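[Primary structure, fold]
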Amino acid sequence: MVVPDLKEYDEEQVRLMAEMCIVIDENDKRIGADSKKTCHLMDNINKGLLHRAFSVFLFDSQNRLLLQQRASEKITFPDMWTNTCCSHPLNKPEELVEEEQLGARTAAQRKLEHELGIKPEQVPLDQFKFLTRIHYVAPSDGIWGEHEIDYIFFIKADVDLHVNPNEIRDVKYVTPDELRAMFDDASVPMTPWFKLICNSFLFKWWDKIDTVESEKDEKTIHRLGF
């Protein structure tokens, strides 16, 4: 296996690569832990290494979706537009709790503050609406990639943003039509998981934003893009 020299990457992003992700099987059963670096190398992904993740879709009171453009410093999928926040619960007690998806909710709240500067009190844990899980695989650049079971959360809140420039290059709120126009523009790079979720679920859920909990499916793991 070719192990990339991390010296060529941003120092802070390299530090985060040491965080311990939750390694799971295809049924989302925890089987261990490994570093973010190990979990995101395509050599390991091609051997089946799979980890737990989450994706947050945050809407304001006008029902506009907050998007972020990932920073150029990101090791995986730099400069790509994506949903509000995408990351991983870590292998630590408060983020391992599976009841009511509490571990993933806790991680989502943590990363919304880390990436976007959103204070936890603006996004209470009980306000995250869990909808379903998706399982997907996506190469980034031949060396790095993603292979995740991704917990999908909607949350509706008017929030104050203090963007971390090491994580995020740009942000914008969009309507459904504005997002469709972005997808139609070949010059706008989008993360693969965001494309999969949009093509499969997002717009129909968005239409039901105020009753979206009726769409919740706790049992199914949707295998997308395989």
Q: What stands out?
A: The CA atoms of residues 29 and 57 lie 24 Å apart. The chain has seven helices and ten strands.
